[in-house]
Write a structure and sequence with these properties.
Strand content: 5-15%
Strand order of the largest sheet: 11-12-7-6-5-13-14
Radius of gyration: 29 Å
Length: 617
RNA sequence: GGGCACGUAGUCUAGCACGGAUAAGGCGCCAGCCUUCGAAGUUGGAGGUCCCAGGUUCGAAUCCUGGCGUGCCCGCCA
């Protein structure tokens, strides 16, 4: 319409549309006049007023728009409230629990890997950030039509594992009462002191490390048992946060599957990857990155993928795994159920004996990894590009996020700085604090009820805290901030929904006759309607914003928490100013319909965020 | 040495991709609102050199250049 009135393209008009700072100014506005002023060399205010009469005539045939005004150069558009409300509420109640979903990326498949914590320690709160981001991103991608496969990577062959196996052989079997991952985590810290100070120990650990390569060795059996128990314990933490996977890739399975030699053969086919005959990298397999514009000025553009003794570097292994993820190599793995998860689905792991399975092709592959790994990730994708897999390289995304740390240090497994800040500790403390609040409000309820609610509030608060921070910002962990249950936090969203449910509970669901939604005319009501109507676009925007950047692919998780917070705020204002049950007949039914729409939208929003819906709190 | 990110009230942040109306929230502080659907709520108030300096523009927190400060990354390691 604006395009017609101004004789310009739709694209320019769409770019000029924005939401005014104050809804009294309009529901939408356009800065088109500014853009035109440049071309026409006229005063933008004049252009806007010239366009106004044309626009006013045109909206007579637009049922959704009631009026158009100008304020200086701004063209402000007002919706026809009754029609807009009717349209929104009808579409919400038709879609119900699928409201917010779309089929924009239908038939696309995505593989997402997170959090890949070493099986030698409990998750600290930074690992939780990774996992929560990965899980929420998975929810979003599912909402916009993707088929999502969630993958975890278990490095059961690292130095950390050898050190722990060495330590386990030194001590008696008494583990005490600790959760197994915590037990190992503490052992690991102990090992470091002896390891760093004794060459003898280092030698012995290297010996263990060699044994681990042989799956039949005693050390490998100790390791297998240890890692299995550790991963099981870590999974317990994940489940508390509502995080589940489809597959686990174990490093030991990779090492013995033949994947690396398959990949090596493919890599050597490539012109820009070769074996230097002399120099300091003689005998290695290196990628020549200098052919890529971005790396051409590097001091040494030769990145080693396989060492001179034939073993792979991290980058080499990552390239092999990335090839597998895209289905570019024949799947060399067998699969077996690792365990059944509380969500009713089982998670499978790669094994050497077990069933074949075809994971199939993926359109995009996401790796959720700390942003300090941006450089190595980029190397992997670049090598894919060098190999001629340009499309796969482009569709490889490093979902980058900053670390969670303390005031003046980062969490470190080696130094044990995570102690006291494990995800389990934080959940426990959050639950205790939530319990105090729950108890205050529901003194007469059963312990079961109170425990349940406290847990739901705690989990919600932690997930929200992690998602509400923009992923490119470092989080300094402070208890009072992470576990604040007031204001911009999960309980606010949960609470708004609980209130809505209480209202709906108090009416008998009498036959839904014709409801005149035109009765919803106040600002508080209409603002809520507008927010509800935006939900599907908000989700889609976040999915579409997954674009590559120099340092990774940004996932704006905070957009969804901000949306949820805004939605809850508008409901709270509506709740405060518009009584529902005591309203006169007609208005009452219309408001009930609005509350129902809010309930559906907020429920779906919390589902995407992974925040539990609390009935009463 | 090179690269990346960050710098916004006392404090924690949003906004920056794609420039637009009075810079938006939470916490904290001050003052109101519970015989009316749940006060984990709500209404109002105080609080700002958007790190600095230039530039582009009718218009810059947002774009460009140059600084300053903070964190991180650049191994045949793991």
């Amino acid at each position: 319409m604006l395009a017609k009135a101004s004789a310009t393209t739709n694209e320019i008009v769409l770019g000029s549309i924005e939401v005014p700072p104050d809804s009294a100014l309009g529901d939408l506005s356009s800065t088109l006049a500014f853009a035109l002023a440049k071309e026409l060399k006229k005063n933008p205010g004049a252009i806007a007023s010239e366009m106004l009469p044309k626009l006013q005539k045109m909206i007579e045939q637009e049922p959704l728009i009631s009026k158009v005004e100008t304020k200086g150069p701004y063209i402000n558009i007002f919706f026809e409230r009754a029609a807009f409300t009717d349209m929104t509420i009808t579409s919400v109640s038709n879609a119900e629990n699928t409201y917010g979903q779309s089929s924009h990326f239908k038939d696309k498949r995505v593989l997402i890997e997170f959090p890949a914590v070493n099986p030698s320690k409990p998750w600290h709160i930074g690992h939780a950030r990774n996992a929560i981001l990965g899980d929420t991103l998975s929810n979003i991608l599912e909402s916009v039509g993707y088929e999502v496969v969630k993958l975890d990577y278990i490095n059961d062959l690292g130095l950390q594992i050898a050190q722990l196996v060495w330590k386990l052989k030194q001590i008696s079997a008494d583990e005490g009462e600790k959760k197994y991952d915590h037990y190992l985590g503490h052992l690991y810290v102990e090992v470091q002191e002896t390891f760093d100070s004794s060459e003898e120990v280092q030698k012995e650990v290297r010996e263990v490390s060699r044994h681990l390569e042989n799956l039949q060795s005693d050390d490998a059996k100790i390791s297998g048992e240890m890692v299995r128990r550790c991963v099981e314990a870590q999974c317990q933490t994940a489940y508390k946060l509502g995080i589940y996977h489809n597959y686990q890739v174990w490093e030991s399975a990779i090492a013995h599957s033949g994947l690396l030699s398959l990949a090596k053969d493919m890599i050597l086919q490539c012109d820009n990857i070769f074996k230097p005959e002399d120099g300091d990298k003689a005998g290695c397999i290196v990628a020549n990155l200098s052919v890529i514009d971005e790396f051409k000025d590097m001091k040494d553009p030769h990145k080693i993928l396989f060492r001179s003794d034939g073993t792979r570097t991290y980058t080499g292994a990552d390239v092999a795994l990335q090839l597998w993820k895209f289905g570019l190599v024949k799947d060399p793995f067998h699969y077996a159920v690792f365990e059944d998860q509380p969500n009713g689905k089982s998670v499978k792991r790669t094994t050497l004996e077990g069933e074949d399975e075809n994971l199939g092709k993926f359109d995009i592959v996401l790796n959720v990894i700390a942003s300090r790994q941006a450089h190595p990730q980029k190397m992997v994708y670049t090598v894919l590009d060098l190999m001629g897999y340009t499309k796969e390289s482009e569709n490889s995304h490093h979902i980058a996020y900053e670390f969670v740390g303390l005031e003046d240090e980062d969490f470190s497994g080696r130094h044990g700085t995570w102690i006291g800040y494990s995800t389990d500790d934080v959940i426990d403390r959050a639950t205790e604090m939530a319990m105090v609040e729950v108890d205050k409000r529901n003194p007469d309820e059963s312990d079961e009820f109170k425990n349940n609610v406290a847990n739901q509030v705690a989990i919600g608060a932690i997930r929200y805290f992690m998602l509400n921070a923009s992923p490119d910002r470092k989080i300094t962990f402070r208890w009072e901030q992470a576990l604040d249950f007031n204001g911009d936090a999960a309980p606010y969203l949960q609470y708004s929904l609980a209130r809505a449910r209480r209202i709906l509970e108090k009416i008998q669901s009498d036959a839904k006759g014709k409801v005149d939604l035109g009765k919803l005319t106040s600002d508080a009501e209409f603002e809520l309607v507008k927010a509800i109507s935006r939900f599907p676009d908000e989700i889609l925007d976040v999915a579409k914003a997954l674009k590559k950047d120099v340092w990774g692919t940004g996932f704006i998780s905070n957009r969804i928490t901000a949306y949820g917070f805004g939605l809850a705020t508008l409901f709270s204002k509506f709740y405060d100013s518009c009584p529902v049950l005591k309203a006169e007949t007609g208005v009452r039914e219309a408001r009930l319909a609005l509350v129902e729409s809010f309930k559906i939208t907020m429920t779906n929003c919390l589902k995407i965020l992974g925040i539990p819906v609390v009935d009463r709190m």
